[in-house]
């Protein structure tokens, strides 16, 4: 992973210091700019104000719901939409990878949905299902589905032919080949697709909450922005970033545990 | 941390490898086009049937004929004093401007971060913090800082595409094989020549894959941003139509956006095919 043969005198300690130095520089600039009053607190709240905002949110919540409730609501939507979309998408993708006719049939639909901006059909879903959890979960389902199915399809297609032939020549049935050769080989890509999908689903949910929501972290940011409470906006953004990172790491942890054979070909 | 692929998509998004034909069922490629046409036909037929059999009220789901009529009408008379072309052009302009700026700054930074450990160490944390942030969450701040005009939207798309492009360029440089660099050195190449003739060409396929992902992300985000605060653009058209329950215009907008998305993706794929003919040939 390290850059090919280009460590220049500076050891790892040197790199660490560069990182710390740059982060400290940004921190110092932030403090300096906000303390000196060059920038209005409204545009960029200082560290003190930000901390107060965070404590306030933790203690009092936002608009009659606690911070945890907003977070839990967002998380519930993400997980429901992701789980259903990824499950259906993976099954579809496995079938598409395994059978050319199925691929040819579903490919145009998947290829149409994949690059389509998700928020475009949110509007239609809201007209159909009303403003509520249902429209948002259907949106997230439709967001996760094409991403997972393309990953699963690619996974199946990348199975090495020698393995399949070896299993066949040892007398494995079609189902056994699929269950014991094709599926395990495709699993690393399925997980990669799942990580990709949860990232997109998460970003889409926040956008959906901002555009048409009444609860959740995304809505909180929008609402705080309307009332020019920019310290809440900043706290919300940082929390969203951490939550996104957490979701990704969670899936990665599961992946490392489940597909211990990845990369050992 | 280091072992995690910087851009998870880089693994799935590579072009298709030769298919393991023995695994696959369902005949050759000959029947594929027929099935594709059948699939589109089925989708249209299902739509027409849902509409024709009055399973759903007309105002919730207009039929294909209605949407086509709307298409002709919007082409001729425009929608609320904006033509379809104007809306498509402003959406593409915002998306393209943010994306190109991100490429112009992000690719050099990513290459530098991959090449020099110190530059990498300096910026890695900032980029890794930006990447998982949902772009719309900071749109509110950008509107506060830059106003509701094109500036805040282009800045948003820039910030959406930037971390993706940087991560891809960095991963591209770091995936250069040591042997190639050593071979070039042992033949007497200078640092500069190694960078120009070995590292950049090896990184280019990943850079272009990253650009494809970044453009797709920017395209999704531009529509979301237009839903929130805009007075033109395809996202605005769809949003405005939803307020007047003009579902025919919404569906028209979705179809146009879908086709545009496919076209943008094809564009970068074509660029990729023309530019890095050495992709996958090691």
Commentary on this structure:
- The complex is a heterodimer of chains A (265) and B (282).
- Chain A is built from 10 helices and no strands.
- Chain A is mainly alpha-helical and 265 residues long.
- The two termini of chain B are 27 Å apart.
- Mean pLDDT of chain B is 82; it is low at 1-22.
- Chain B is globular, with a radius of gyration of 23 Å.
- The chains are: A mainly alpha (265), B mainly alpha (282).
Which class do the helix and strand fractions of chain A yield? mainly alpha
CATH superfamily of the largest domain in chain A: MetI-like
Can you tell me the residue ranges of chain A where pLDDT is under 50 for at least 5 consecutive residues? 1-10
| Rg on CA atoms of chain B, Å | 23 Å
Name the biggest interface: A-B, 94 and 93 residues
CATH architectural arrangement of chain B: Orthogonal Bundle
Total domain units of chain A: 2
By DSSP, the count of extended strands of chain B is 0
The amount of beta strand of chain A, in percent, is under 5%
**CATH top-level class of chain B:** Mainly Alpha
Query: Distance N terminus to C terminus of chain B?
Result: 27 Å
Distance from first to last alpha carbon of chain A: 18 Å
Q: What sort of overall outline of chain A do the alpha carbons produce when their principal axes are compared?
A: globular
Order of helices and strands of chain B: HHHHHHHHHHH
Keywords:
heterodimer; A: 265 residues; mainly alpha; MetI-like fold; 10 helices; globular; B: 282 residues; 11 helices; disordered N terminus
